[in-house]
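Ticket #4471: structure output looks truncated?

Reporter: J.K.
Steps to reproduce: submitted the chain below (497 residues) through the standard prediction queue, then opened the result file.
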Amino acid sequence: MNLLSSKAGVLEMSRRLAIKGQAFVDGRFVDAASGETFDDISPRDGRVIARVAACGAADVDRAVSAARRAFEAGVWRDQAPKERKKVLQRFAQLFEQNMDEMALLESLDMGKPIAESRLIDATVVLDTLQWYSECPDKIYDEVAPTGPGQLAMITREPIGVVGAVTPWNFPMLMETWKIAPALATGNSIILKPARWSPLTAIRLAELAAEAGVPDGVFNVVPGFGSTAGKALGMHMDVDCIAFTGSGEVGKELLLYAGKSNMKRVYLEAGGKSPNVILDDADLQAAAKRAATAICFNQGEVCCAPSRLILSERVKDEFMAILVATMKKIRPGDPLDPASNMGALVEKGHLESVKRYIAKGREEGARLILGGDSPDVGLDGYYLNPTIFDGVDNRMTIAQEEIFGPVLSVITVKDDEEAVRVANDTIYGLAAGLWTRDLSRAHRLSRRLRAGSVWVNCYDSADCTVPFGGYKQSGNGRDKSLHAISKYTELKTTWIEL
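Returned output as attached by the reporter:
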């Protein structure tokens, strides 16, 4: 059956789906040591779809012990790179064979449209697994240019036990951005998925084991950040934490590292990204992409272009196209292949986004579209695409990450003001820039303080390019060979000849 052929087909597949909610430790499914579980609620309709192991400190300790044993035994670390490559290629093949299931789990778990889960998320995950499966035997070490009486070798070694803490908005995608390079370089992993979307993480570990990843090398401990997440961050035998999520939690992980063993901590901690529309831009293309990008994944995107910085010279024409485009984007059942927008991840988050909308109106911004919830015939957590005009960059909605389909329009007079406003934020994850002038594009993109700058596009990506941010958007990079640095140590071996 083609997963996307009909809503009826998707619903039938969902009824037959076998969902696992246990932790995965040392090569097998296990309950939490306490026996406790938590309800995994689908934002589609508020229904409990699984009861998931509520792991705590004892479970994290068990997983770390398994990971350390596997690492010290060398069952994965010391495999020849070409052998690790074969296992990772099988992992990618198994994922490819189960892409429909993984996409369906994703849509049920966090509310994104099934078409996006299958055609975007699952496809990017497969590309990531395939790309990093080719890395183990293509990472070269160095010989330093010393004098003839010395030999200095510079080698990369796996860092050891990696704790990966991942968000709920792109669960399996963010998970593979971390586990793929960490596995490729010979590490052992403990993955702590977000409390709201743990299901694909559990299934990924099962597929990895089936592919031949040795016991103890890939473990999953679902649970709450205050228990499982904190225990992982504080653990004295974890060598590295790789995190994507909120800045608040990222700062806590830095504190945990300082209070424990000074483990490496790499953070991708969100953004408030500017999308700069200059007066010579292709307005049709820019306005349509501004609309679809802020609504993609219900606006629950760390690099969402939530601040639209618009030249006053083209405002009227641009806004007409923008509003008309966003009016066509309507929330619908995530399991309907025709839906182009789904549900927000949980009730509390929907309420948080609505509080920001109220705050925007209170501070004087003009609500010109949305702000309310549609009736989609399901008891889920839905919000219509929302536009505020007349936004001052000092307003709360322009400074704080809302993580919903809420666009703030800020008008500027010239390029200098556009750059100043774009950079006036604690974040620096991404930025968009629209202009037909190549020199202008080069000049201004250099001045935008962001880890990614998209020119005449937005959120374009490939596994060959790094992703990460400046300032309080974090440190380190996911994707590309640059991610390898997070999961390896550099060793200098100096030999007198």
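Triage note (M.O.): checked the attachment and the full token line is present. The chain is about 40% helix and 20% strand.
Status: closed, working as intended.
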